[in-house]
Each structure stands twice: as structure tokens, then as C-alpha cells.
Predict the structure.
Amino acid sequence: MPAMKLRLPFLKKTTSVNVVRLHGLIGTGGRSALNDATLAPVLERAFSKGKPAAVAICVNSPGGSPVQSSLIGSRIRRLSEEKEIPVFAFVEDVAASGGYLIACAGDEIYANQSSIIGSIGVIFSSFGFKDLIKKIGVERRVYTAGKNKSTLDPFMEEKPEDIERLKKIQLEIHQDFIEVVEESRKNKLNKNLGIELFSGEFWSGKKAKELGLVDEIGNINQVLKEKFGKEVVIKKFEKPKSWISKKLSSSEENAEKIASILEERSIWQRYGL
């Protein structure tokens, strides 16, 4: 007599999608900095826990370190290929510069029609204080081994050869960025509108869709329900928040935090946020 299969109708199989939200500047410092070291365990769990049908990456970042952006994006792609799990990227307010580079790790990119997308370029900014220290009677003394060790010292006169050297590095990094975008978007990019996609300009989500920088306009709940059904279970994975850093803060650390906050705000404000 064949064995009977035991059916438990109340154990309904559900489809789940694991979600990782990436919010903030990309780098190794700052209040809410996104970097590969802190995100690695979060991403590993998101791709491993519960056999998800897909992983969704919610991006809300004005950019930051090109290295950390590349490392995070590469990790997402590697995990996607190893686990054979598709990745969908969803842009919230902004995915600019390194933020957009991370979004390119998705098999598909979605955005709100008012999201800010693009800024595919490289920027370096600083201040010059050489006239200020003269006015307050301060003498700058610098001793180096290596003629280029004091390149772009903010208290010294700019040298044309230093600027040229910096621009060469920027062009190399910019080319790397372009290659990542072109590899990710392939034939989706619309280069027939007479608009330079890699000039550092940024656009609304609506225009970005026209340019092929994103696939569709849509939010995470809407898209995931359309793809996996109304009963899809969305599980969120977040970077753990450390309480001990608050306990051990000092006045010096607080000063650094204030400077970091001001810098972070200035970058967000470039995009009206």
C-alpha cells in the first residue's frame, strides 16, 4: 500500500522579498555613512535568510566615496550571482553619483517620478587659506620628503601641475564610473536625445526613465506586489545601530560630528533636500 502524503493546508507557502535600505552619504565616516565593511553582514543576511524570491535595495544617497560605492555595488552583484537571486533597486529621494552607481547593481531600477537621478561624474572640492594666514600673521612651515607630498596644500599657492595631476585621476575614476553604468544598463541607455549622460548632470526620475537610467516609475510595495503577488512578504534588513558610541562620546568627537553633519547637509542640499 503506497504511503499517504500528509498535507497541512494551514501551512501556506509564502513568497518573500528581503529589503535593504541604504540611506546616507557613502564613505568611512560620518553619522550615517554607508560603507562596505558595515553593510557586508547586512547584505549577506539579506541574500541568505529565508530563501527570498528577490532582494530589493532601497537607495537614498547623494553619493560619496567612489571606492566604497564600487565595493558595495560589487558585493550586491556577487551575492546575486552566487545565490541566483534577482536584485531590484528602488530610488527614494535621490540616487546621485555613487548612490546611482550602487543602484546600477540592480537587475532593474525603479524610481519615483520626482526622484533625483544621475550626477555621473567626479568632484573634488576644498578651500584655500593662503591669504587668510598672511592677514593674521601666521607663517606656514612644511617639510617633505618627495616633491609632490604637499600637493594641493590649502595654505599654499595652487600649482598648475598639481591641478593637472588631480584632473588625470578624476578622469580615470570617471571612466570607471561610466563603464559600470554602461555595463549595467547596456542597451537600455537612450543616447539618441542629444543629451550627454556622463557630464555630471542630474535629472528627475521621469526624465531618467526617458534617458534609460531607470527602467520604470514605481514604488517598492507596488512593484513587488505586481511581480510576486499581493501576499508577498517584505522583510527588512538594516544596519545595526551602535549605542556604545553615544556613551563614549567626547567633546572632540562631538565637534567632528558637527563638522560631519554640516558637510553632509551641504551635499544633500545640492539636490534640494
